[in-house]
């Protein structure tokens, strides 16, 4: 059976090779030119040649008529370049208007050409990266000391998943449209692959279904091409340790992984196997919902008069050190994967290899005896399964926690009358370290951060935090948001304002070349999304911080409309139909409340809101009202999602609360806030 699958792979790839030579020629013609501005083309080059021709004529005879011809040619050339530049930006914006990340990447590369990741791309550099990545993982695993005990909790799967269902050609077609990238080793680039899907689709369907039913993954699907990524940008590119390995897998293997991921997720959701407080790579979950739940718990605890200790754990190269045997055990005994489905996962994890690519240079290949690829579709889900026991260990100590992929945070109220308030979290950390070591995950104490929040101001660190004493910070970055000990969010606001004004300065450079509508799209992608990210955490912040955020929106409106600095901005915002920042924050809170009430939000947020049920029959019983919990402090409990969301919700007109769909609710809510704002 294994050989049959391998033969089908070869046959399918041979069918692709009919266009390989043409693709190579196309690649050489389009990529082996000197790097130039992307909007320069044959039209601009022809106009430039006319300028040079007129320039040579004027330099030769120095006549006034020749000078006039040169000046006219130069003006014509500048006009053509501006038109081509405008056409280029319009095309980029139209093609990526719903993909802010792609749009940001393209425009940033044009406005600020990136520096090369390496001082020199060569085969020797590729080999150096290959050896570094291999030695790094081996070194991490070698330095993990096995603990003296096992804190794991015993699992018993409630259901069995023994085989994958065959996939239809129609579903595969939808999957192909969703996948954006492939591997440098692909015979066909992804966009060409999609164009000829009608011809090669049946071949791919037979290939995918053979793999699923026979429980085998062809070796060619397990050969990754790693492209080192300097992260974060701006670090010293001469240090290999500043690079993160990003795996590029073959396009067809991603199709296979997408289908396996879909069927596995359906099974996990039906059996409630997912960890409730794991927000990474799950439908309806995001970093924003994760932070909103953590922030809510911290505010309510502080409102009750207790301090809160938050620990942000750092795991070094967590995806790369996953042990394959342990992962297979987890799939079989914790999830309930058996039969050909289990054989498929064993085949998927075995005989994996990778090479490093830098431009046109490549390294040799090296085996991957451990880890799940970060660039794969299935890798993040498998990592979440790998971490399943960790949540149960933390719950055993009655310590609150939240995961987002490999970002782990635990937090605990500190009781002032307790003789040893840190005992639960220190014992929990001891078990976490032991479990991580048993599972070949490296707990990096040097990068682990601790922050303490007080009930009325900055939290005072206890006299003895044990090994965490040196980790205490006054400001920490949690999933991209800065938390401060006073819970003012002013450091986060400072960061948002600084980065937003930088983007506005950059966008002012392209304003002359793009239309009004295109500039508005770009402003929303670059600036408004930054203002809106996790803005539910801004509820109740001081007016000074709120005014600074509003200044950013005002500046964006002035850039778009050309409004002068001292002109009144409120009519401009009204004409643009832009809700002010204050109302955007309320909009986000109410939007999440609607999602909670309609089953469109994570369960950890849904647990915070409850329908109002009066003790006796009242007219308010059918008003779709929410119960409002009690709180004491304006800057603590009143800002918690569990408190502020019901308060805002109950103030809405009834017809908005009873909106039948999400789109209708958003439309009615914006109209309601717009009438209040202007």
Automatic annotation (TrEMBL):
<dbReference type="InterPro" id="IPR043502">
    <property type="entry name" value="DNA/RNA_pol_sf"/>
</dbReference>
<dbReference type="InterPro" id="IPR000477">
    <property type="entry name" value="RT_dom"/>
</dbReference>
<feature type="domain" description="Reverse transcriptase">
    <location>
        <begin position="210"/>
        <end position="483"/>
    </location>
</feature>
<protein>
    <recommendedName>
        <fullName>Reverse transcriptase domain-containing protein</fullName>
    </recommendedName>
</protein>
<dbReference type="Pfam" id="PF00078">
    <property type="entry name" value="RVT_1"/>
</dbReference>
């Amino acid at each position: 059976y294994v050989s049959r699958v391998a033969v089908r792979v070869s046959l399918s790839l041979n069918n692709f090779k009919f266009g390989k030579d043409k693709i190579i020629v196309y690649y050489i013609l389009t990529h082996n030119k000197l790097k130039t501005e992307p909007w320069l083309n044959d039209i601009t080059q022809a106009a430039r040649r006319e300028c040079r021709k007129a320039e040579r004529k004027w330099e030769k005879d120095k006549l006034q008529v020749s000078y006039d011809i040169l000046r006219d040619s130069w003006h014509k050339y500048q006009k053509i370049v501006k038109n081509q530049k405008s056409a280029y930006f319009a095309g980029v914006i139209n093609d990526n208007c719903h993909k802010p990340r792609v749009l940001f990447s393209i425009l940033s590369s044009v406005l600020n050409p990136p520096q090369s990741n390496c001082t020199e791309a060569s085969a020797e550099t590729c080999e150096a990266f290959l050896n570094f990545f291999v030695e790094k993982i081996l070194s991490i695993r070698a330095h993990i000391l096995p603990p003296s005990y096992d804190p794991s909790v015993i699992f018993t799967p409630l259901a069995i998943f023994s085989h994958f269902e065959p996939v239809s050609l129609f579903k595969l077609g939808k999957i192909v449209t969703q996948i954006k990238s492939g591997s440098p080793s692909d015979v066909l680039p992804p966009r060409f692959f999609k164009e000829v899907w009608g011809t090669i689709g049946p071949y791919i369907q037979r290939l995918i279904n053979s793999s699923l039913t026979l429980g085998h993954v062809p070796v060619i699907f397990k050969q990754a091409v790693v492209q080192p990524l300097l992260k974060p940008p701006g670090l010293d590119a001469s240090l290999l340790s500043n690079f993160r390995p990003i795996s590029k897998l073959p396009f067809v293997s991603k199709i296979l992984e997408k289908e396996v991921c879909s069927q596995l997720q359906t099974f996990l959701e039906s059996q409630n196997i997912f960890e409730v407080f794991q927000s990474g790579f799950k439908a309806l979950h995001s970093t924003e919902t994760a932070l909103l739940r953590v922030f809510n718990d911290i505010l309510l605890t502080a409102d009750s008069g207790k301090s809160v200790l938050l620990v942000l754990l750092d795991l070094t190269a967590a995806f790369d050190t996953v042990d394959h045997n342990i992962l297979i055990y987890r799939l079989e005994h914790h999830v309930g994967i058996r039969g050909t489905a289990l054989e498929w996962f064993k085949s998927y994890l075995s005989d994996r290899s990778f090479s490093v690519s830098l431009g046109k240079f490549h390294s040799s290949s090296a085996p991957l005896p451990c880890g799940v690829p970060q660039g794969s579709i299935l890798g993040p889900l498998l990592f979440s399964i790998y971490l399943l026991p960790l949540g149960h260990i933390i719950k055993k100590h009655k310590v609150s926690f939240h995961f987002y992929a490999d970002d782990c945070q635990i937090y605990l109220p500190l009781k002032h009358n307790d003789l040893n308030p840190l005992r639960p979290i220190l014992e929990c950390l001891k078990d976490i370290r032991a479990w991580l070591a048993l599972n070949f995950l490296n707990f990096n104490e040097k990068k682990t951060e601790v922050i303490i929040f007080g009930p009325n101001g900055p939290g005072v660190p206890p006299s003895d935090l044990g090994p965490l004493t040196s980790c205490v910070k006054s400001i920490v970055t949690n999933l991209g948001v800065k938390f401060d000990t006073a819970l003012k969010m002013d450091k986060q606001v400072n960061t948002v304002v600084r980065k937003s004004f930088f983007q506005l300065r950059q966008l002012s450079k392209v304003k002359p070349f793009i239309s009004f509508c295109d500039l508005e799209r770009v402003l929303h992608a670059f600036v408004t999304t930054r203002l809106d990210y996790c803005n539910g955490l801004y509820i109740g912040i001081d007016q000074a911080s709120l005014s600074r955020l509003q200044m950013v929106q005002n500046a964006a409106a002035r850039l778009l409309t050309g409004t002068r600095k001292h002109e009144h901005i409120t009519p401009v915002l009204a004409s643009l139909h832009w809700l002010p920042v204050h109302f955007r924050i309320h909009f986000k809170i109410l939007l999440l409340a609607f999602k909670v009430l309609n089953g469109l939000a994570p369960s950890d947020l849904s647990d915070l809101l409850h329908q109002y049920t009066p003790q006796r029959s009242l007219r308010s019983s059918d008003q779709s009202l929410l119960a409002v919990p009690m709180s004491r402090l304006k800057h603590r409990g009143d800002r918690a999602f569990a408190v502020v969301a019901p308060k805002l919700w109950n103030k809405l007109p009834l017809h908005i609360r009873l909106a039948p769909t999400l789109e209708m609710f958003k439309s009615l809510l914006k109209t309601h806030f717009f009438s209040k704002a202007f």
